[in-house]
Design brief:
Blueprint (H helix, E strand, L loop, with lengths): L6 E5 L2 H16 L5 E4 H7 L15 E5 L7 H14 L10 E7 L2 E7 L2 E4 L3 E3 L5 H8 L6 E12 L7 E3 L6 E4 L4 E12 L7 H14 L8 E11 L6 E4 L5 E5 L9 H14 L13 H4 L16
Parallel strand pairs: 1-9, 7-14
Antiparallel strand pairs: 1-3, 2-3, 4-5, 5-6, 8-11, 8-12, 9-10, 10-11, 13-14
The chain binds flavin-adenine dinucleotide.
Flavin-adenine dinucleotide binds next to β8.
């Protein structure tokens, strides 16, 4: 299914490799294969990383998930859109929700730049604009919006056939079918709704890239772009009915909402249809921020690299 031969996260100390062993065990206990590699095994798979004596952070080993890879996000989005259209769903493009229509305490529709649309139930799934739309509905959400950037280089001959993530800093890389290296790093460190990043992060990501893969130091960057991430305090999504009658929320996916799309869509559809959380997402309600029963699942996202 994927173009890559798995995902590798490098470990740069014995302690880090130890924590990766813990993670590999947790994955295996949940039926997901994972392997711990020593330094020589990593070198055999990804010899283009810096294994020299002068490496900034020497590679001790890695964790490998051999079935992981990347999927073309736009093809996935269009695939879902066409399938939904085929099932009779109306998709109205370039239609901005500007407000919510109320009947007493209940939300019964939305105002848009194309007119009013009435609805028995409304699902809010607007990622980087969750807090903006939430506020219009009268919901104050525990969400911060930050920009995350991604980068693409000029096309190269095949070099990287895994997804490689750097355990010593924020950097991940894969190679697209067209040959460009696709990579990224950490969030821009301030709240923003701007869909562009700042140069500080470009520099940090480039530093990490070259520390791990010195061979790409002269490769030209073609473009970079930024998208808004709706970050929650516990790095887990919010997917639930809201305290406002008729309004359901699917947001707060931080860095990881793409890979979750099939499962989150399934659970959200169930929740909308029945008015009750699907059992799989019962713990992902808003209430957890009131009770303090937050979910520690940061390990499923990029922040896991540094743990
Ligand atoms: C650079 C970058 C790299 C990423 N890498 C990964 C990754 O490797 N793996 C992963 O799993 N996730 C990744 N993500 C996160 C992932 O893209 C998101 O979590 C995911 O797209 C969220 O899906 P969504 O359908 O909830 O929202 P979106 O895909 O953002 O869709 C929300 C839609 O709502 C629309 N909208 C907003 N406001 C309004 C309004 N007022 N009225 C009408 N429509 C509105 C938007 O135009 C948009 O079309 C990355 C994100 C970025 C920016």
């Amino acid at each position: 299914m994927f173009s890559q031969r798995g995902q590798i996260v490098t470990a740069h100390s014995a302690d880090q490799l130890d924590s990766f062993s813990h993670r590999a065990n947790v994955m295996r206990l949940n039926g997901i294969d994972a392997d711990i590699l020593d330094r020589d095994a990593v070198r055999r798979l990804v010899p283009y990383l810096d294994f020299s004596d002068t490496a900034r952070f020497p590679i001790h080993g890695a964790i490998l998930q051999g079935r992981a890879g990347t999927a073309r996000h736009d093809a996935v989005a269009w695939g879902y859109a066409r399938a939904a259209d085929g099932h009779g769903v109306d998709i109205i493009q370039n239609c901005e929700v500007t407000g919510f229509v109320r009947d007493g305490d209940r939300i019964v529709g939305v105002d848009t730049n194309k007119g009013r649309i009435g609805a028995g139930k409304i699902g809010l799934a607007v990622a980087g604009h969750t807090s903006v739309l939430g506020q219009k509905a009268g919901l104050e959400l525990p969400i911060e919006s930050h920009v995350l950037q991604a980068f693409v280089t000029e096309p190269l001959k095949p070099l990287v056939d895994h997804v490689v993530a750097y355990g010593a800093d924020h950097f991940y890389v894969s190679q697209s079918d067209k040959g460009g290296l696709v990579f990224g790093g950490n969030l821009d460190g301030y709240n923003s709704y701007a869909q562009r990043g700042n140069l500080g992060v470009v520099r940090e990501v480039a530093e990490a890239a070259i520390a791990l893969m010195p061979c790409i130091s002269r490769v030209r960057l073609l473009r970079h772009w930024g998208g808004v991430m709706d970050m929650t305090p516990d790095a887990s999504p919010i997917i639930c009915p809201t305290p406002i009658d008729g309004l359901y929320l699917n947001g707060g996916w931080c860095y990881g909402g793409f890979k979750a799309t099939p499962a989150s869509g399934w659970c959200f559809a169930h929740t909308l249809a029945t008015g009750k959380p699907h059992p799989l997402i019962a713990a992902y309600g808003l209430d957890r921020f009131r009770t303090g029963r937050t979910l520690d699942e940061a390990g499923v996202g990029p922040s896991a690299w540094l743990q």
